[in-house]
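Saturday, quiet lab. Running sequence design on the structure tokens for the scaffold JK sent over.
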């Protein structure tokens, strides 16, 4: 299959070229699927998100200005698609008006996630409730601030901090259970 530059892909897709659409999909589907797996419960949900995400990419491709990498633009669409899917779940995020009770426990030097291999961490992330999973991914992996997360998810900063704290605690419990059961 022929390799196209980002600009060639975009202009070809805008002209309606199936070859350019297929090339874009082949180039970006695997890395975007990996991103979506972090936000999903399982492979099937990630596949649904991927399909919806590429529908949005092809629908909105004219909005790509070429300022940054096409892959970064597509990734933002995929993350927004994942968040849209998660927001539709009834147990997504429960708002916490005051984070103060968690604040003392929240700051820790322990970085338990860095000691896990990627596949194990992915399995643990997929077991998290949707709100915990979204905030953990956005903060710990994608580097969003709590203010940015709050704005994206339409929650308070305190809720974002609370969801991250609870996600970490949840993963620690899973790790503890796995460690105890392996002995």
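Result came back. Writing it out in full:
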């Amino acid at each position: 299959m022929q390799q196209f530059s980002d600009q060639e892909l975009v202009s070809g897709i805008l002209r309606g070229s199936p070859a350019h659409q297929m090339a874009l999909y082949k180039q970006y589907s695997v890395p975007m699927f990996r991103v979506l797996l972090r936000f999903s419960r399982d492979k099937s949900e990630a596949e649904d998100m991927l399909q919806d995400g590429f529908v949005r990419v092809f629908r909105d491709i004219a909005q790509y200005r070429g300022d940054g990498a096409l892959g970064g633009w597509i990734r933002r669409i995929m993350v927004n698609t994942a968040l849209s899917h998660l927001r539709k779940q009834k147990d997504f995020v429960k708002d916490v008006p005051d984070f103060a009770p968690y604040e003392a426990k929240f700051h820790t030097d322990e970085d338990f996630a860095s000691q896990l291999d990627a596949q194990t961490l992915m399995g643990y992330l997929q077991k998290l409730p949707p709100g915990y999973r979204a905030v953990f991914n956005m903060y710990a992996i994608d580097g969003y601030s709590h203010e940015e997360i709050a704005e994206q998810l339409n929650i308070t900063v305190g809720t974002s901090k609370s969801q991250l704290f609870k996600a970490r605690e949840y993963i620690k419990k899973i790790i503890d259970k796995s460690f105890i059961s392996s002995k």
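Notes for JK: The chain has two domains: 6-87, 100-181. Residues 100-181 form a domain with the Arc Repressor Mutant, subunit A fold (CATH 1.10.10.10). Ask whether to fix the surface positions before the next round.
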